[in-house]
């Protein structure tokens, strides 16, 4: 019996030694994989920050993901329990031997976790470095729009001019005339085309200031931003050729037909000391179609 006991002890020691060697080798593999992931993620960050190069970016991203993947898989295979254990639930109370065995196993696991804290830090470092690299592509989205979608080139005192830069006086517009104008200095700006219309309907009473029977509306349809370029003089209606939205000129450009749900923004206008049309401010609401943070 004593010989057999001695033999069993030798076998257990050999098994522990082999397990220790295997564990150390696994730790090295995990540490190396996470280190490669960190370096690759930092390389991706550097390449992107200096202007980018698709091939290098793809290589570094692949190495970073592969390093994290290999490290996680080896960790799971080498250091996490994967055997299935069944136990008869005959007696629920634990014996003293079972409590002692659990305590020993728990303490051994605690020692392993402390010993592998470097692996944990490397793993977190790899994820953090990859997260840092992922932040940089946000720069490709361009600058924040700010109020760029809500403001145009119009401001108090800015003249209304044609595409050639010529200012206009009321007497240059006959009844039923419609002219596309822009804020002076911003000719051809995509958000600024404005319809200057002499309705012939006498002095208008609208939400924004007019000059007698001359009114100014944004030329951009409030449905999808198409140019509202058709003016029906007798009915005094503006028609968008894209989806046939129709706006009543003498009623604040309210939509009366089609998919547009909002009236055309009206530009407040007046005259300067030389008698030329000028804006009294910007449009009171954003022009064109809807976007994420505008209301009705």
Helix and strand topology:
Blueprint: H1 2-49, H2 54-79, H3 96-115, H4 117-135, E1 160-161, E2 178-183, E3 194-198, E4 214-218, E5 230-232, E6 237-239, E7 246-248, E8 254-257, E9 269-271, E10 277-279
Antiparallel strand pairs: 1-2, 2-3, 3-4, 5-6, 6-7, 7-8, 9-10
Question: How would you characterize this protein structure?
Answer:
With 296 residues, this protein is of the alpha+beta class. It folds into 2 domains: 14-141; 160-279, Rieske [2Fe-2S] iron-sulphur domain (Rieske Iron-sulfur Protein, 3-layer Sandwich). The protein is built from 4 helices and 10 strands. Strands 1-2-3-4 form a 4-stranded antiparallel sheet, with no helix packed on it. Strands 5-6-7-8 form a 4-stranded antiparallel sheet, with no helix packed on it. It has a two-stranded antiparallel ribbon with strand order 9-10. A hairpin with a 5-residue loop joins strand 9 and strand 10 (277-279). The protein starts with a helix and ends in a 17-residue tail after the last strand.
